[in-house]
Amino acid sequence: MTEERTVEPLLEPREGIPPVIADADGLARMVERFAAGGGPVAVDAERASGYRYGNRAYLVQLRRAGAGTALIDPIACPDLSALDAAVAEAEIVLHAASQDLPCLLEVGFRPREMFDTELAGRLLGYERVGLGTMVETVLGLRLEKGHSAADWSTRPLPEDWLRYAALDVEVLVELRDVLHAQLSESGKLEWAREEFAAVLDTPPPAPRSDPWRRTSGIHKVRSVRALAIVRELWLMRDRIAREADLAPGRVLPDAAIVTAALEGPRTKKALTEISAFTGRSARRHMSDWLAAVHRARTLPDSQLPAPSTPGDGPPPPNRWADRDPAAAKRLAAARAVVAALADEHHMPTENLLQPDAVRRLTWEPPDDLDDETVAGRLRALGAREWQISLTAHPIAKALSRLRIRGEI
To answer: Which fold has domain 8-201?
Structure first.
């Protein structure tokens, strides 16, 4: 898929670094310009993950033929619905769209048709699908990626950050054009269109129940009383982080929560002896942390958290052999089918068929293992039609073979 070529550094946007649009008049002029442009619209967004609470956009970049590049401050211009309407008929080109779509939706930008260059790269079998690597491999240009983890809530944004942001959309449409041709040549274009549509149709994730259970290191906490300490500290941290608009980990690291749950400190002095509580932000809220620990200690047993919450799907695959050996055999057979097909079509197994669909199908298989029934089950589990057309028959055949041999 790759070929040797001279790699040229992409150092400056073709028209220079555009000014950041931060007022209604500038946005209106930019909307007119993009409405008059032609072809796909390249879009990217920069967030402040790890610095701010949530994942809102702090810079939105766009580029379109005939309109050039635009950089928008979505904090100063939080409503991009006019821009959305102006380019409603255009194909929107994104890289790793599932990362940017939520924050774009927050500001009123909702693509109707999309091309995801990362997802296209996966379907085409590229081993590395980061934007910089894809641009270098496909176009022979080198992007500088030094500011991807920067705090984009910074104001004013430094010039070198803005240069980086503008370059992220500089050749995105050109990358799309080459990948589109490769998808067409390989017979995968319709597959890609189904995948892009599925990404656009995916609803925002529902809020997690008991999100505190995702605290890193919580597996070390065994007693329900200690779990209550994790919960109370997590909820307190979340409130403080939200009010201060800080990433929760910058207020108090997960390691501090887990250590406090294991040690159960009763005094501020005991808290300060936990090294993870020595950060400036953590020290500022010592009374809050101690109050949270005290609440957990004094809760009646009826209000303590359950040791775990039941999942809505199969158990982890590493437990299948003990819990249901027949299911473990079905899973192994289905995985082998998917792996072989993925290898044949030069793509990752998870893109050929979602691992969760394979697990759910094989944990509770239909009574009938004919092609139509298996296809229906895969469809109900969210598989796309192109995936079903490739996998339903061989999976049904593999599972039927196990049943005929009496192994399941």
So the answer is: Nucleotidyltransferase; domain 5 (3.30.420)
